[in-house]
Predict the 3D structure of the following.
Amino acid sequence: MKENIGIVGAGICGLSSALALSKHENNITIYERDSAPPAGSPDEAFFQWSRRGAAQFRHPHAFLGVMCNLLQEHYPQLVQRLWDAGARKISFEDMLPDEIKKSYIPEPDDKQMWLLMCRRATMESVLRKYVEEISSITILSKHEVVAPELEVRDSTISLHGLRVRENRGPVRSVKHDLIVDASGRNSKFPKWLEGFGATIKEESEDAEIVYYTKHYQLENDQNEPDRTGKNRGAGDLGYIKYGVFPGDNGHFAIILCLPNHEKELRNAVKVPALFDKICEAIPGLEPWVKKGKSRATTSSFGFGKINAIWRSFVRDNRPEALNYFAVGDAAVRTNPLYGRGCSTGIVHSHLLEKAISSKSSPIERALMFDRLTEKELRPIYQASLREDRLGKKRAEASLRVGRLESSKGLKQWLTASIGDAIASSSRENIDVFRGVMKSFNLLEKPGDFLKDGKIQRIILRYMLRGRKQNSSARYQRGPSRLEMIELVSGKDAA
Ligand SMILES: Cc1cc2nc3c(=O)[nH]c(=O)nc-3n(C[C@H](O)[C@H](O)[C@H](O)COP(=O)(O)OP(=O)(O)OC[C@H]3O[C@@H](n4cnc5c(N)ncnc54)[C@H](O)[C@@H]3O)c2cc1C
């Protein structure tokens, strides 16, 4: 039956939820607090669109295989429009390390592992235009949702609408059969619902990092440097992680990611000239920023408070609110370093569509959506947490000579050893690289490739080489921590 659906937020997941739910001829209204994108090119969207509601909007985004395949399968015309706007495909072959490239023989599954690269402004403005053209969907910009409309009967909360105000004007009520909360990381719904007696359990863990970005554009006559050779365009020096995000139309961004305790370097990356100085000192970044290759198009800017969040809306098999569904960052968030948020968000939107179209009772819909979310997204969330925890230990170890993180007991030592052996073998062995890339692209549950007997034997062989040799594969060439601190705090830097 046709339903009247209200979606809060026209970010990536609000738009993808509208797409998924529009399949069933529902009437959909999306309320978005920010203004609409400017009408012109991706550059106008990037430089001029005011997106206060999505603070990460100007940070670079990679779009993983799971998302790319889903878009290609369901919305091929949307993908075509992204190519037309300058987006780029990075194939599995493009990502092969040099050591493997020479002897590479393609396999059919390799085609599934590709990244779509463009600025988030390009992705969002093209996606939004595509959604706007669907006649059953209306997007209302500058419309802020200020509260849910609901009733509480026998301590059960049921939503039946929203309270909305346009352009900070008077508040009006609108009726909806169901509400999709795609209002992102700062969703107010948990607080609002708790005000009516709901208990939204929130798990939260701080990754203890800061994330800095600066954008550049290649000079007219310049090509992109190599990203996969000896000096990789993304990597780890132990005390700093870095990465180049190739974008659309000659644009690219560089991220520098630091543990909270790196005070001197954290201060330095805030200063655009010192950001460049750090990049020039890292062999994997220097070819991108050297004089004549590119020019900066923005200052350096950061994102703190990087917490993983999991919100549960069902307790003891009982939904906390009926006709209410939280998707994307409003429900689940992982460390942006892994580039998973939009991919898991779009998968989440499609899980919602499955729950809504398979069940008609509000309780059954909520339970099914919760079950699907737990089944599909929980393993990804847990894997991200494990990576964060290991990352914190490694950051701590980077302050000591020798840089191997300590492990308490055999289990921790074994986990660290296996991690090092995977890092090392994935640089040299195509089977392990394929497995790692399947996990990275979320085409299977993280780490599933380790169940394969052949891969287990390869990893065991690498483990026998010892942790010291394997762990060095995790790190790229570059200045030591003290050299880098000296570089940014020396007379030169001043
Ligand atoms: C630094 C950083 C880098 C990242 N890099 C990547 C990456 O490489 N790849 C990747 O896949 N993901 C990445 N992510 C994660 C990704 O940005 C998010 O997972 C994704 O944007 C979530 O989409 P969303 O629609 O849930 O929320 P958002 O995109 O944040 O959208 C929420 C929308 O809701 C609107 N809104 C909020 N409240 C209201 C209200 N009351 N009324 C009306 N509108 C409202 C906001 O204005 C906004 O438009 C990164 C995140 C960060 C912080």
Notes: Residues 256 and 418 are 27 Å apart (CA to CA). The chain is about 40% helix and 20% strand. The chain has a mean pLDDT of 94. The radius of gyration is 23 Å.
